[in-house]
Design goal:
single chain, about 170 residues, Immunoglobulin-like, 4-stranded antiparallel sheet, 3 helices, about 30% helix
């Protein structure tokens, strides 16, 4: 009789443990499914400036030489990321040498291999995202672009990184 009650208690404890384990597993699977669905449905924000003039337009071609991008060798830094690859951050001073305020500035950071081919790039919109007021004639601002290296690329395979003007919005 005493053993019977112990067996019943032991069986009940096993059932509770299994129920808790199955319930916890179901919750984990459900949370993982929700995270995956949210990640897939999240709109990817394209780094693109609305109403910007770009290469090929007369206004862009006339003004691009007046936007000076100054990158010093010490302004290029390499960082390891969490997935075992690396990224390079390029910092520069952008100066408006023209006669009109720049209300929108779109830049692209590029990573080049030893054959001067672009292996990775990333767009950045420092005006109006980082700086809401226009860059007036004669003013300089500090910008930064982080470029992720592709998988299977080592730091030794990267020849250079740079920042280029991609789009402008003039006032």
């Amino acid at each position: 009789m005493f053993e019977n009650e112990e067996d019943k208690e032991l069986a009940a404890a096993k059932k509770r443990s299994r129920a808790i384990l199955l319930g916890g597993s179901a919750v984990v699977v459900l949370l993982a499914a929700i995270i995956i669905l949210l990640a897939k449905n999240k709109p990817h924000e394209a780094a693109s400036l609305d109403d910007a003039v770009r290469a090929g337009s007369a206004e862009f071609e006339a003004y691009k030489s007046k936007v000076e991008i100054d990158i010093k060798p010490e302004d290029k830094r390499t960082y390891d990321n969490l997935i075992g690859m690396f990224q390079i951050e390029v910092r520069a001073n952008v100066t408006n040498r023209g006669d009109r305020p720049i209300a929108g500035l779109e830049l692209v950071g590029k990573m080049f291999d030893m054959e001067d081919k672009t292996i990775s790039q990333r767009s950045s919109i420092p005006i109006p995202r980082a700086r809401t007021k226009p860059l007036n004639p004669g003013e300089t601002m500090r910008v930064s672009v982080k470029i992720d290296a592709p998988s299977k690329i080592t730091e030794a395979e990267v020849k250079d990184v740079t920042i280029e003007l991609k789009g402008l919005k003039l006032q």
